[in-house]
Amino acid sequence: MLIRRPSDIKPSEITPEYVYRTRRRFMRDSLAVAAGAGAGASALALPDSWLEERRVEPGEPIGEQMTSEANATGYNNFYEFGTDKEDPAKYAHEMNVDPWTVEVSGEVAEPGKMGLEDMLAGIDLEERIYRLRCVEAWSMVIPWIGFPVKKLLDRFKPTADAKYVEFKTLHRPSEMRGQRSLFSSIDWPYLEGLRLDEANHPLAIFAVGMYGKLLPNQNGAPIRLVVPWKYGFKSIKSIVSIRLTRRQPVNTWNDLQPREYGFYANVNPNVDHPRWSQARERRFPTTLFRPNYIPTRMFNGYDEVAALYSGMDLARFY
Ligand SMILES: Nc1nc2c(c(=O)[nH]1)N[C@H]1C(S)=C(S)[C@@H](COP(=O)(O)O)O[C@H]1N2
Ligand SMILES: [Mo]
Question: Domain 11-309 class?
Fold first, then answer.
């Protein structure tokens, strides 16, 4: 692997001092975790204190009420743990996320496999408060902690032939009961993809935390994609592989129901799902008696991405 390990590089060469200091602290903490510091030992690849030690730039509020942490961590889609909204919160703890490696391959000059800690060393984290619009017509407002996808991809030096990015979720049926289910029609592992210029858009992030803490397993620990202008299924969870490609990669929901779920999946109030309208959404908190319907906005309100699709018929490329 051509990537230099952080220990080979003088930290002052690449990172501001505060990151260097927090990294040292992080290594000390992670040793404690590795040594199995008893019942309190974290099951996560990064200790809980890690985010607090990093200087996380607070996000811009978006003038909309934030969804409660209880809703965002208790009502989830993560079919690897079952199809009910409560299943991920019940069963995702069965997934072991420590250690965690991500492989970057395909059309890159410097492919490699990296442990998550090395991957995040020297990357500044930001808080981003984003709307999340599920294709099922409900939505939330969630404060993520993460960093732009482009920052990571650039380190592996995409070649001139790289046109798309494929992302893959962990495939580990022994810890993911939905992958063991005989009733599942999904061809595991869960796959997603973006055009490279979409992935490089500053709004597209990898999230490692939410609500000021590490990402809970049910939300895609330890690292997941968040693409706020697209339907939620594009924001793939618990990523173990990133592959740069020349051709449009397969994405799980398109593979399953091509008429209902496209590759682009941009939030679009004018293009209905074959079985329901996409013109409005239920914004959390939502109940049977107070569904809290609001109109859905083009690109989920993120108009700044429109230039990515100029000249494209978004009813055809749904
Ligand atoms: N691996 C994987 N990623 C996934 C899913 C899934 O089932 N498996 N569901 C998607 C869907 S449909 C949505 S709406 C979001 C939900 O993210 P959240 O649970 O953090 O709100 O995750 C997406 N990422
Ligand atoms: Mo979704």
Answer: alpha beta
